[in-house]
Amino acid sequence: MDLHIPLKKFFGFNKFKGLQEQVIKSIVANNNTFVIMPTGGGKSLCYQLPALMSEGTAIVVSPLIALMKNQVDAIRGISENNGVAHVLNSSLNKTEIAQVKEDISNGITKLLYVAPESLIKEEYVAFLKTQKISFVAIDEAHCISEWGHDFRPEYRNLKHIIKAIDNVPIICLTATATEKVQEDILKTLGILDANRFKASFNRPNLFYEVRPKTSEVEKDIIRFVKQREGKSGIIYCLSRKKVEEVAQVLQVNGLKAVPYHAGLDAKTRVKHQDMFLMEDCDVVVATIAFGMGIDKPDVRFVIHHDIPKSLESYYQETGRAGRDDGEGYCLAFYAYKDIEKLEKFMASKPIAEQEIGHALLQEVVGYAETSMNRRKYLLHYFGEEFDVENGLGADMDDNSRNPKKKHEAKQDVVLLLKVIKDTLQKYKSKEIVNTIVGKENALLTSHKTHLQPFFGSGKDKSALYWMALIRQVLVVNFIKKEIEQYGVVKLTEKGEAFMNKPTSFMMTEDHSYNEENDNTIITNSKSSAGIADAKLIKLLKALRKSVATKQGVPPFAVFQDPSLDDMALKYPITLAELSTVHGVGEGKSRKFGKDFIKLISNYVEENDILRPDDLIVKSTGTNSGLKLFIIQNTDKKLPLIDIAKAKGLEMSALIKEMETVIFSGTKLNIDYSLDDLLDEDQQEEIHDYFMEAETDDIEEALEEFDGDYDEEELRLMRIKFINEVAN
Q1: Residue 540: inside a domain, yes or no?
Q2: Is residue 513 assigned to a domain?
Q3: For residue 88, what pLDDT is reported?
Q4: Which of 562, 588, 615 is where one domain is finished?
Q5: Which of 21, 80, 323, 486 could form a disulfide with 40 if both were Cys (CB 3.0 to 4.6 A apart)?
Q6: Pair 517, 562: CB distance under 8 Å
Q7: Of the ranges 3-12, 172-181, 461-470, which one carries the lowest mean pLDDT score?
Q8: Are residues 270 and 377 in the same domain?
Q9: Quick one: 584 and 681 in the same domain?
């Protein structure tokens, strides 16, 4: 049967894309069919064409009203009769529902789009039972699985409703599904016999990058967007509040951005979506409520301000970039703090749901922290192998452009595989790592694992090292994660073979995203991530040392490292410009600035440097009000705890704000508060420590005093110290 004739007749195309033809043949032959095709691969044509060719009406179950409307409009556009496609959902009135029923009864309607909630209604089921139904297509089928990234309970009942209407073939389609989700979908719908079609998940034109998320994340985003002025992009945030904040910061900095989230009224949402489609704005800052129904082919970048809850979500959201096969830049900001925040949100959910959530989050952590080819990591997650040497898009990620050091880890891999085998392949990654480093817990004790000779056999290396090795061994298929008891690690034949006859295994060292590293401000060079001018930093550090010696203070009291990094990015050559540098206010720049701007000015001239003068990032002014409040109330000697409460802050957050004030050179007197906390001798002891210390790092101070003082006391003393010696 030649499907090219109807393809040309209905859609005007001369040839099919990818797997479309095979899928359509399976549907036309009345087979249950399961299709996994990435966003932009042409999924909808797979059910639209057979529906137009078949007798009766095809029911298309879809979770999004906006998406249904787009598809119905598209189908009506290729037919003389408007009744060829209809939606049946909560947006219709009685007259419209009667029209839909009439068109179906008269054999005019070929495609009926319904939300799962509507399909449950008895009156609709009773009506559809009396009609000729060609097949049922379930779009966004991952919603069926609680392992999917968008689980919807009402999808679980579809099997019974479809059976009640008619015993017709079922076609499921999804753009992302791991093996676990695939099995779940097929079981739940009772179609284990379905023909399965899976297109490649590789999008070779997308560039993947993960950067450490610092307190400067908004500045990083502004720089990134300004370098792509006039190009379309989406910025995803997890909360509505953050969406509003980021959109506002972008607007204040002269960028055409609008917010989009479920808290805005429908009219505003539609307006903002249309502005984006019609290019009246360049950037949409959104929660994940945005994008499902968006078919804009020329989105040039997708930024994740917050890391998403699962790799499926990440893949779906980044997949909105570069659908026209043109440039697509996917940038995610990552800090482990965000993962901890997401875990806290999960605490209120049922245990089973929490377990699933944790497992999915760990996959995200693995992706963010890995230093191997990100495309290979991502595709492996979806059960697809990727050839790093010859695969399309092999060098399109930050890790491939800036490879990290590798070292021989053959013996460590053997040790890891043996521990998995000797613990009878019943543990998840975390337990395996605990066994190797010798960390006891209730589960290990109950299995008597802590008494085994191999317990602690790899304690010379950190848990992070072993976790990174597990990820890398997983991707080369020496081990696999069990589908039924998700997360339990099993050996594969390939792993057994390696254990018996080890060969070289070069392990790449993972990225470390701990707090100390979070101060590196990374900017985006044209090719990939670049870093502040290292040569200039060296000169600035030497100058800082000599200024500090002259003033008789430690170097960090002059300027902190992040401030020097930022100077080596912005090249400030006036005091006004210097005061916009991270951690440098007007007070600091007046006191120490002259020598620094002189040095930078000479450096810029000698090296012909193009200064990024557009990188002076304006703030929305919300924080300046808080700083003023802190200064005024410490002047009044108000207890710090009361100042924190008045602004709804935790004590640690208030201290952080006070540090910002003090490090920028403004005086802040908190002696009255410290006198209640520490006596004179204690204060003197900490003051002397900071005077002699190489660094003002609090971790090091905690170590030095070994439990004599807590973190809060040391941070407050550091504020007093900087106030006295540096401001």
Answers
A1: yes
A2: no
A3: 86
A4: 615
A5: 323
A6: no
A7: 172-181
A8: yes
A9: no
pLDDT at 618: 61
Q: Which domain does 656 fall in, by range?
A: 622-725
Q: Which long-range contacts (CB under 8 A, 24 or more apart) does 118-125 make?
A: 118/88, 118/89, 118/90, 119/59, 119/61, 119/158, 119/161, 120/154, 120/157, 120/161, 124/88, 125/161, 125/164, 125/165
> What's the CA gap between 398 and 331, in Å, rounded?
10
> 383, 267, 239, 224: which is closest to 315 by C-alpha?
383
pLDDT band at 189 (very low <50, low <70, confident <90, very high): confident
Same domain, residue pair 65 and 189: yes
- 99, 75 Cβ separation under 8 angstroms: no
Query: 194 and 141, same structural domain?
Result: yes
pLDDT, one tens digit per residue, over 350-366 is: 877 787 888 788 889 88
* CATH code (residue 643): 1.10.10.1390
Tell me the residue type at 722: I
Do 308 and 280 reside in the same domain of the chain? yes
Percent of the chain at pLDDT above 90? 33
Beta bridge partners of 407: 507
Q: How many CA atoms lie within 13 A of 618 on its CB side?
A: 11
**Which of 415, 397, 402 has its CA nearest to residue 509?**
402
How far apart CA 436 and CA 248 sit, in angstroms, is: 48
User: Given phi > 0 = left and psi -120 to 50 = alpha, else beta, which region is 608?
Assistant: left
The per-residue pLDDT for range 131-158, each reduced to its tens digit, is: 999 999 998 888 777 665 566 667 777 8
Count of residues making up the chain:
727
Q: Which of 553, 666, 664, 545 is nearest to 595 (CA)?
A: 545
Residue 196, SS3 per DSSP = strand
Same domain, 342 and 316: yes
The helix-helix angle for 622-635 and 651-663 (nearest 10°) equals 90
Residues 6+ apart with CB under 8 A from 274: 280
Place of tokens 């070779």: 204
Q: What is the CATH number of the domain that holds 555?
A: 1.10.150.80
The answer as to whether 519 is a domain residue is no
pLDDT digits (tens, 9 = 90+) for 558-588: 888 878 888 888 888 888 888 878 777 777 8
In three-state form (DSSP H/G/I as H, E/B as E, the rest C), the secondary structure along 83-136 is HHEEEECCCCCHHHHHHHHHHHHCCCCCEEEECHHHHCCHHHHHHHHCCCEEEE
| β-strand pairing of 85-88 with 195-198 | unpaired
Distance, in Å, from the CA atom of 283 to the CA atom of 299, rounded to the nearest integer, reads: 9
pTM: 0.61
CATH value at residue 213: 3.40.50.300
CA nearest to 719, candidates 678, 667, 675, 681: 667
Q: Are 299 and 232 in contact (CB under 8 A)?
A: yes
Helix runs in 227-335, H state only: 240-252, 266-277, 311-318
Report DSSP letters for 345-392, one per residue. Answer: HHTTS-HHHHHHHHHHHHHHHHHHH--S-HHHHHHHHTT----TTTST
User: What is the CATH number for 472?
Assistant: 1.10.10.10
Average pLDDT over every residue of 52-77: 83
Residue 77 lies in a domain: yes
Q: Are residues 286 and 423 in the same domain?
A: no
Number of structural domains (the chain) is 5
Last residue within a domain, chosen from 475, 508, 541: 508
What is the overall mean pLDDT for the chain?
Answer: 85
Q: What is the pLDDT of residues 655-706, one digit of tens each?
A: 988 988 887 777 888 999 998 888 888 999 999 998 888 888 898 888 888 8
390, 271: one domain: yes
Predicted pLDDT of residue 278: 82
Q: What pLDDT score was predicted for residue 519?
A: 33
pLDDT digits over 1-47, tens only?
A: 788 888 888 887 888 888 999 999 999 999 999 998 876 667 889 99
